[in-house]
Fold this protein.
Amino acid sequence: MSTLLRTRQAIRTPRNARSFVARPKHTIKDPLLSASNSKVTKLAPNLTLIHRPPPTAESPISYITNPSSPFLKPSTAAPTIQASRPYGTIPTLPESHANVPPTVHPVPARFNPNSPQSFHLNQAQIEEMKQLREKDPRGNTVEKLAEQFKCSRLFVQMIAPLRDIVVRVKSSDGIEEITEAERRERQRLKKENRWGERKTITKEVRKRRKALW
């Protein structure tokens, strides 16, 4: 019986199969030698110099006063720190760059309080803007009026607000005339009535937390 089991096992496992013990040792390649841009120089029988350039460009301003590596070359593209200075002192720029004026960038008009302001809209144009906004608030939007009169959207919202504009809406009693503020309030209440219990509690807790700030 044991001979039969051994025969079946020998048939299932081939003799030339490589097991875990027979695998060759995993060797890790040296990243310096395997790099495509590395330069290998034989200096002595047991001494080899391998130079691989850095992956990023060198800094034009270096804080190393006396670099020991011959590959750290001083850059002439930008002013460098003075090489000879006492220990503990603050590094300064050379005298040739001391009197160079700084680059002045113009400040945008909306952030500059001293910029000249232009009031190109007269009273007639302002009244026309109000009439257009009141006549058709859905068609004459803030963006369209701001582009038409060449002004900001904030100016249109300040001059022609929608709170006092009367609009016509459909209701159960027919067509009703209400203000735009009332129409928005009705839409908000209609939206809140569709909320679930969890969202209603969350909104109330948030409102209470905001009141206690």
